[in-house]
Specification:
739 residues, 4-stranded mixed sheet, 21 helices
């Protein structure tokens, strides 16, 4: 039997052991590769935040001295850097991001350290790089969480791809908050150290680098020890000296208010501005017992139209409106508009020798009949326009406006000179001649500078980069010089101001003072050929001063500023050159005509005349004794003075004023008042006709004479009065009487 067959079974190969660690490694490698690809492609799908534009907010004076920074809309002061301050950048990296040049937006080593420390529960050090902090600064405020951190990390990567390291550092230094309303390193350097960021020493740069971490907690002005500790920690890491004092102070970097509406180089001179501010403060202090708290000063260079100084308040820190703008606030003009009143009169036929009646006079005003008085209640009788303007008499100014010009014309003239006057002629009336308008000091001084240039108007320049514009001839140069000559004539103002030291100079200087009727404002404006100066003194709360005039209030400031300008000019100040067309005439000051051999010596004076004015001079009205004959308007003054050897009175002669019944004026309503004597039924009649020869008539009213005066006995109803004189002049008035 055959042997049984046998077979050998070969076992299958053993199954391979699962290499889980290989799978894990592969997965990690794939994830790492994906992460690297993702990280490298972040700039392709993440939009970086827009870096803020560096803003130029710096304001300097004409010599480049820093005056301050204009605040942003949020109140922060900022000035952009255009070049990276290397020392500050070095300190910033030492404080915030030591490996700044070795990462591409995220410092993974710092991230790992921060995570490990958090797991251990030790110090919670941050991992944000400077680029991540920049991304944070460029985004709106957001809740601090991991989502926000991741967003900032991705944006940091995108920033690193678009900008180089220098650009990122510069953007950070231009954006960071350094405390005390300073945004950006340049503003901080100017505020804390009074110097530019590029000029900081190492210990100063280290302090600014410290502040970005916590500008409030490390505020060096309030918490100097905390700031010093953090600064020294940065210096130690840099291996630098830590013994230097903190050396900070609150330097003013607030740009001059009201002048610097835009950044740039101003025409102001910082040293001159400081000196003038000190002068104004000193003089105001002398007047405190007269309830004077503030002053404002403006200085204009006549040759260029540049604003050299503009002091808005003598005491800017005062609780009585120190932050207000004294040179930009409209105030009652007082007598400062009188030069323009007479300037208009010269264009209408008057000249400096024209005789004006300085006697009590009634005028129609917008709200009725007025009898304005002179500032010191002194009336000089017949005077020339030269003396009337130099002595600042009110009545001649109103008469000049009434006789030679018009209220509407004066308003147009003042507006053409840059004064922003509101309202129309009817609102002002003849009171415009004596200052019932409100003007601001800057505009008024600018108008006076046009006078100084002989009527050539230049736009006011506040920034050196402003284009120099051509002058515009808006006034007659001959008339302007005549006004300037009067304002610089000390002998012409003697009758009112005597030897006023405030208006006495070692050089010829035109000056005009002004005081509001309620002592709320006083002024002094004037000029030489080189400079025009305007001064206002008063209170920003509009409270009245106590017996302070333009001579005693604004005058001393004006005087000292002019002397300071002579030092600034480094040469004697000059006066505008006399036009060759003007000739000097010797006149009789009683009549304003050419003097004769018989003219009394005390009545002789030299006067400037244009060819047209000389040709139009009237003949003198003298009596057979050589006395100047006065009309009826001077009767009261003549009877109270002792000028019989120089003047004679003709009580029947008309003054030349338009025949008008002043009281009761045409169209008025008179109410009977039972509290007055006789129930208020007697009203004195007044007109512009010669009182000695005036006849009054009415068909409805009884006319009576009492003590040399004429009265009407009033009854209810509408009445008409007629006045006539022997020289044929007539006037009428219709008015109403009510119970």
């Amino acid at each position: 039997m055959p042997a049984a067959a046998t077979s050998t079974l070969t076992p299958p190969p053993p199954a391979p052991r699962r290499r889980w660690w290989r799978w894990l490694a592969g997965t990690c490698a794939a994830g790492l590769l994906l992460g690297m690809i993702t990280w490298q492609t972040v700039p392709l799908w993440v939009e970086p935040p827009a870096l803020p534009t560096a803003q130029n907010r710096l304001v300097t004076d004409r010599n480049g001295q820093v005056l301050g920074l204009l605040p942003l809309a949020d109140g922060y002061r900022h000035q952009g850097l255009t070049e990276l301050p290397q020392e500050l950048a070095r300190c910033l990296m030492a404080a915030e991001d030591k490996r700044f040049y070795n990462h591409s937006g995220v410092d993974w080593g710092a991230v790992a350290r921060a995570a490990w420390n958090r797991l251990r529960g030790t110090s919670r050090s941050g991992a944000s790089t400077l680029t991540m902090q920049l991304a944070k600064l460029c985004n709106p405020p957001a809740q601090r969480n991991y989502s926000t951190k991741i967003k900032e990390a991705l944006q940091a990567r995108a920033l690193e791809h678009r900008y180089n390291k220098q650009e990122l550092l510069l953007a950070y230094l231009n954006t960071a908050d350094f405390g005390n309303q300073c945004r950006g390193a340049e503003a901080a350097a100017l505020f804390y150290f009074g110097k530019h960021a590029a000029d900081l020493q190492t210990h100063e740069a280290a302090l600014l680098a410290a502040l970005v971490q916590a500008p409030g907690r490390l505020n060096p002005l309030r918490r100097p020890q905390a700031a010093l500790k953090r600064r020294n920690s940065i210096l130690q890491h840099m291996g630098a000296d830590t013994t230097a004092p903190l050396g900070v102070a609150a330097h003013s970097i607030i740009a001059p208010r009201y002048v610097a509406a835009a950044p740039g180089q101003l025409t102001l001179d910082a040293a001159l501005q400081r000196d003038i501010q000190a002068i104004a403060a000193d003089e105001v202090n002398k007047l405190r017992r007269h309830n004077v708290s503030q002053a404002a000063v403006v200085v204009i260079d006549n040759r260029s139209g540049e604003l050299l100084a503009a002091v808005p308040a003598a005491h800017p820190d005062s609780e009585r409106g120190g932050q207000l703008n004294g040179f930009g606030t409209p105030r009652s003009a007082g007598s400062t508009l009188k030069p323009f009143v007479f300037l208009q009169a010269f264009g209408a036929g008057a000249w400096p020798g024209t005789i004006m009646a300085d006697v009590p006079t009634l005028y129609h005003s917008a709200d009725g009949i007025r009898a304005p008085g002179n500032y010191n209640n002194l009336y000089l009788g017949p005077i020339t326009i030269r003396q009337a303007l130099a002595c600042s008499q009110n009545i001649p100014a109103m008469e000049a406006l009434n006789r030679f010009g018009s209220i509407k014309g004066l308003l147009q003239l003042l507006r053409s000179l840059g004064m922003n006057l509101q309202g129309d002629a009817a609102e002002y009336g003849l009171g415009l001649a004596i200052g019932n308008a409100h003007v601001n000091l800057l505009q008024l001084t600018h108008a006076y500078s046009t006078l100084a240039r002989g009527g050539a108007k230049l736009p006011l320049r506040t920034h050196t980069q402003m284009a120099t514009e051509a002058t515009e001839q808006v006034l007659n140069p001959l008339h302007c010089y005549q006004i300037a000559h009067i304002l610089s004539d000390p002998s012409a103002r003697t009758a009112t101001f005597h030897e006023a030291s405030a208006l006495s100079f070692p050089f010829r200087c035109a000056a005009k003072t002004g005081t509001s009727s309620d002592f709320r404002d006083n002024w002094c404006c004037g000029f030489t050929a080189e400079f025009t100066v305007g001064v206002w003194v008063g209170n920003f709360d509009n409270s009245p001063m106590q017996q302070v005039s333009g001579i005693s209030g604004a005058g001393p400031i004006f005087h000292r500023v002019m002397l300071r300008l002579q030092e600034y000019h480094q040469a004697p100040l000059s006066f505008p050159e006399k036009p060759k067309e003007l000739t000097v005439l010797q006149i009789d000051t009683r009549t304003g005509t050419i003097a004769t051999p018989e003219t009394p010596r005390r009545c002789l004076a030299d006067e400037l005349a244009t060819p047209e004015q000389r040709a139009a001079l009237p003949e003198a009205h003298l009596d057979d004794r050589g006395r100047a004959v006065l009309d009826a308007r001077y009767a009261e003054w003549f009877n109270k003075t002792k000028h019989g050897r120089l003047f004679a009175l003709d009580a029947t002669a008309h003054s030349g004023r338009r025949p008008t019944i002043l009281i009761p004026a045409h169209g008025t309503v008179v109410r009977l008042d039972p509290t007055l004597p006789h129930g208020g039924r007697y009203i004195e009649l007044r007109s512009t006709l010669p009182a000695a020869t005036t006849r009054w008539e009415s068909t409805t009213l009884r006319i009576e004479q009492r003590a040399g005066k004429t009265y009407a006995v009033l009854t209810p109803g509408q009445h008409t009065l007629r006045a006539s004189s022997d020289n044929g002049l007539q006037a009428a008035s219709t008015f109403t009487v009510r119970e």
